[in-house]
């Protein structure tokens, strides 16, 4: 018997494949020359296995979402992995049933229609497995529908807003599996060719399924649902399904996000699944801002809407990047667009004067921000004095900015002028060590300055070294302290342990909850990435962060960033110290205090 | 006023009747906090660029209000965007955005007057 209901499915499928091949080829041809070489060479290496592992782990099983939110993870996994298995096992079933590969490729999709009778044991096992998979996916679909309306069940505060084409894709995706169940149940009602699920629902349908309109219609509906989904897919967020796999392979080939917006950035843009995990990570919600978050921002870019305000409204704290289950380089993407947006603006620093040159083995570069927290530089001077280090305080007067604030505003070319000036000063001094007390300076000196002969150290690491060499005394303070990870130091430079070691050496550190610690640490609210945020927005974030720390009831809040210190000090609820100040406080404490026993304090938090 | 004409110094004279305040209004619209400025001078005192040269945030404000776009543009090139001014401002004015906003709008102004 000739059938026609497979045509909607076929049209959708052919359109989708043609469109994807076109995009894949276009993206590949637009990669830079070196990236193309990287990608071609990648195929002969062991990294391919890592890429395949990542594809299965992230693309199918959604392990990273699973770790953060098991219910959300199950929802994504049941749809992705369940559907994948349904296709693979469905085809296997057809191969076994027909005894060869000689069947049209849509055959497996509508197999219950084309193969009404199956009596063998193998066929029954297959039917049971297929029913089980369908049930597995249906649970996921049910969860997805529930999530749209009762997001709190998933522990999510926010869920993403949808565009019209997203809605077409979403509703057709929701419809595919219930319709498949309906169609297969109709077949099961007529031919008893289902298993535990479809036979049961088929029995409920009873004689209704015998009507040709219902029977044929059910398969037509299923085919149309597939067709709508496939046609809407490239224009909706579901484009992330095919793009993410491509992205995983490119990422494993060692391709990096560039400073300009190019093909790799475009692929990342399409890989965003708009799962909304970044929404809950973003502290800007505290300030009532809901257009800056990465998921919306990328959506604006993809829809080619004006996104200048959200582009410069982000603090680039990196909390969303850590949480992103697709591992997108969100900070780099934003930076690339900032560079593009602020390209026509120029700065010129021909006016700078040279500070008095001194030759010393060690240079201390305080940075602009440290000049606002004089306690930090005085403490550093005392520490240098204590250990007898001969230091040239390079930017004591006539300080030249490190360049990082300009970079965060997208002004890489202007920053290069400052980098050149500072590099020249450092090279002329003949120093071997450079010590910095600001994470912004540390990041730019480590990553963008070319100083091959100089050992660049962050002050917390330097103090840790001094403690290890027994150059600083052991004189523990009898106070409790919370350590606040600065964004640029923790997420930016991956330094977590050394500051903690120093604090534990000199005081009693209260550990924070895992969800607000280390790479998930809160931002103080004054990050230099936030260009056009209002003062109120920043203050709201600072206030909320401080409220969180206050629950632990610490004696001091210790941080390693002058910007964080300056920001938190204004809140006045807890005394804020830079890590260097804590060390000096411990060294200078009167002797009688040292004998006091450790005060017991409750670390509990409700 | 004929008798007192000698007081008028032509090159410093600003005619408020023909003064183009578009730029000022645009900037105040984009960064409303700038209108709260009390000219206290904290920004100027803390400024990194001001440590090297005569760069002065209060002068920026003055030039903007007087519509002296060319001097304003030249002066603003000196800013290092380090953000100390923003942190010390007692009125919570987002000065980094003021600088970026003025620069952007000068560019737009020049493009439109070409």
Give a brief rundown of this model.
Chain A is mainly α and 606 residues long. Helices cover 56% and strands 5% of the residues of chain A. Among the domains of chain A are: 69-239, no CATH class; 362-465, Rossmann fold (3-Layer(aba) Sandwich); 476-594, Rossmann fold.
What's the layout of helices and strands?
The complex is a heterodimer of chains A (606) and B (114).
Chain A: H1 6-29, H2 33-42, H3 47-60, H4 63-68, H5 70-98, H6 111-114, H7 121-149, H8 164-191, H9 196-205, H10 212-232, H11 240-252, H12 263-271, H13 277-281, H14 294-302, H15 308-312, H16 319-323, H17 330-341, E1 362-365, H18 367-370, H19 374-387, E2 391-393, H20 404-408, H21 412-429, E3 433-436, H22 439-447, E4 455-458, H23 459-468, E5 480-484, H24 497-506, E6 508-509, H25 535-550, E7 556-559, H26 562-569, E8 575-578, H27 579-588, H28 591-594
Parallel strand pairs in A: 1-2, 1-3, 3-4, 5-6, 5-7, 7-8
Helix pairs in contact in A: 1-10, 3-11, 5-7, 7-8, 8-9, 8-10, 11-12, 19-27, 23-24, 24-27
Chain B: H1 22-30, H2 42-46, H3 57-66, H4 69-76, H5 84-88, H6 95-112
By DSSP, the count of extended strands of chain A is 8
Instruction: Estimate the mean pLDDT confidence of chain B.
Output: 88
Backbone shape of chain A: elongated
Count of helical stretches of chain B = 6
Low-confidence stretches of chain B: none
Strand residue percentage of chain A: under 5%
Specify which chain pair forms the largest interface: A-B, 37 and 30 residues
Helix count of chain A equals 28
Instruction: Sketch the major β-sheet of chain A.
Output: 4 strands, parallel
